[in-house]
Amino acid sequence: MKLSDIESEDRKKDQSKELEGEITRDIIDILEEEGITVQMLVDTALELYVPHPGIETRELAEEKFLYELDLALFDPNLCMLVYSGILLEREGREGRLPNISKSSYEKDLTFIIADEVLGMSISKYISGDKGMFEFVRFDKQKPGILSELGPFMDDIIGGLIGGVSASMYTRAMADASSSSGKTKRAAKKDANSKSDVMAG
Predict the structure, then answer these.
(1) Is this prediction's pTM over 0.85?
(2) CATH superfamily of 31-178
(3) Per-domain residue ranges for the chain?
(4) NCBIfam families, from UniProt (predicted)?
(5) pLDDT tens-digit profile of 44-67?
(6) CB-based contacts of 49: which residues, under 8 Å, 6+ apart?
């Protein structure tokens, strides 16, 4: 049986499809409570910055990174993923994680992979497979604040920075292509039309 063969039944017919009520907390404020500022995110991201079309300078990269960060954190689902990592970190510091001792949490044992899974999920949620590749790059090199954060937070923040960085590079290249006046398709079309011309 295929999933498409299963008839769906909406058992939550009255469930709201829009956000309601006043938002009382912002994920940026919660990160700041943990000692992580937006500038720290930017600085960490730019430690692994590589010039690309559309972000040829660090100043342009910072501007694009901040834009992509704002865009990403507009999504409450992403904010809740980040928040889940913050809560796990807090519980770990207090020795209240299930089925793991405080000392095991502090040692960031290699067989505990929930932190990496969350980091990968965050990066992939933001920017797909490209985001996951960026997460791995940041996770391996641990630039900036990543080297100072706890077992969950280094991966949560690495995932956030990796996903946002991947989006930054992708959008910058797309913007550079469109501002140059030609996309790849247009350039290919021009090349094909030239090859159709016969010498006379």
Answers:
(1) no
(2) PgpA-like (1.10.3760.10)
(3) 31-178
(4) ribazole_CobZ
(5) 999 999 999 999 999 999 999 999
(6) 55, 58, 61
